[in-house]
């Protein structure tokens, strides 16, 4: 698990290899990840959007931007957590992801960026 705190918001990531799949006559490697967003600040915050950089050892960088996470824009009060799961397909057994969440602080009404630390995606059978 990797974790990072930005402005009192702790992001923790847990990853898992889910298996191989054929899609469009090519093999793909499926990974899941669980993100926990913990509000360690004194203010309520809301997650508005996300930005991902997905690195695949056999492909170019893929950028994904979108509103909320899995169709939600959670409000996280001080001391509370929001956890969600998602995943990605890579064309190789190795890759990584990193990014950020755009959030708003309800007390100051200011937007801010919370870093999602780089986390590695690796199929166990491909490791030395």
UniProtKB/TrEMBL annotation:
Q: Which SUPFAM superfamilies match?
A: ApaG-like
Residue ranges constituting the ApaG domain according to the UniProt record: 3-128
What PROSITE patterns has UniProt attached to this entry? APAG
Q: Which Pfam families match?
A: DUF525
InterPro entries named in the record: ApaG_domain, ApaG_sf
Please indicate which superkingdom the organism of origin belongs to. Answer: Bacteria
> What is this protein's record name?
Co2+/Mg2+ efflux protein ApaG
């Amino acid at each position: 698990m990797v974790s990072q705190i930005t402005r009192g918001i702790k992001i923790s990531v847990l990853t898992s290899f889910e298996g191989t799949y054929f899609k469009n006559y090519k093999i793909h490697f499926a990974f899941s990840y669980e993100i926990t967003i913990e509000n360690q600040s004194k203010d309520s915050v809301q997650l508005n959007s996300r930005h991902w950089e997905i690195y695949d050892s056999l492909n170019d960088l893929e950028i994904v931007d979108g509103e909320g996470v899995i169709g939600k824009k959670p409000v996280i009060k001080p001391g509370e957590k929001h956890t969600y799961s998602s995943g990605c397909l890579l064309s190789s057994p190795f890759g990584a992801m990193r990014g950020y969440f755009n959030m708003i602080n309800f007390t100051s009404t200011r937007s801010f960026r919370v870093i999602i630390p780089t986390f590695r995606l690796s199929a166990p059978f491909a490791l030395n």
